[in-house]
Amino acid sequence: MHSIGERIRELRKEKRLRQAEVGEILGISGSAYSLYEQDRRSLKAEMLITLCDYYDVSSDYVLGFVDERLSPSDYYDLKKKIDVKKSEVEDKLGEEQNAAEIMELLSRLMKIIR
After folding, report:
1. Sign of the CA dihedral with 77 first, then 78, 79, and 84 last
2. Among 52, 54, 48, which residue's Cα sits nearest to residue 17?
3. Residues 44 and 13 in one domain
4. Helix H segments across the chain?
5. Residues 50 and 17 in one domain
6. CATH number, domain at 52?
7. What counts of helices (H) and strands (E) characterise the chain?
8. What is the rounded CA–CA span in Å between residue 110 and residue 26?
């Protein structure tokens, strides 16, 4: 599992940015930013959001909850597809006894990807 610092360092290097440049984006010095990459400081929510927006990755990726680099728009597209499939399942199942159980499972899945 990668740490937050490792993830943001990797993202920065892929963009070929210096720590000072990322610090400027966040409104802090490069040396202050380096502490985040070294996991010596915790990212504030505002900084996390700014970095995720800048690198177009999800906060789940930066925080290490997932290894896939899905952007927020990818999550939105996935949610739309699941909503369509959920509707199709509802239509096909109608009033069957298992419909409630399947709908509960789909609801749980929706909570996971939000």
Report:
1. positive
2. 54
3. yes
4. 4-14, 19-26, 30-37, 45-55, 59-63, 72-93, 99-113
5. yes
6. 1.10.260.40
7. 7, 0
8. 32
- Where on the phi/psi map is residue 94: left (φ > 0), alpha (ψ -120 to 50), or beta? left
Cα 31 to Cα 34: distance, rounded to the nearest angstrom: 5
Half-sphere exposure (CA, 13 Å, Cβ side) for 67? 2
Contact between residue 9 and residue 40 where contact means Cβ atoms under 8 Å apart: no
* pLDDT tens profile 65-87: 888 887 777 777 777 777 766 67
The answer on 54 and 77 residing in a single domain is no
pLDDT, tens digit (0-9, with 9 covering 90-100), for 24-80: 999 999 999 999 999 999 999 999 999 999 999 989 899 998 888 877 777 777 777
Amino acid at 43: L
Q: In the numeric block, which tokens belong to residue 114?
A: 């939000």
Higher-pLDDT residue of 103, 64: 64
Give me the domain span that covers residue 83: 72-113
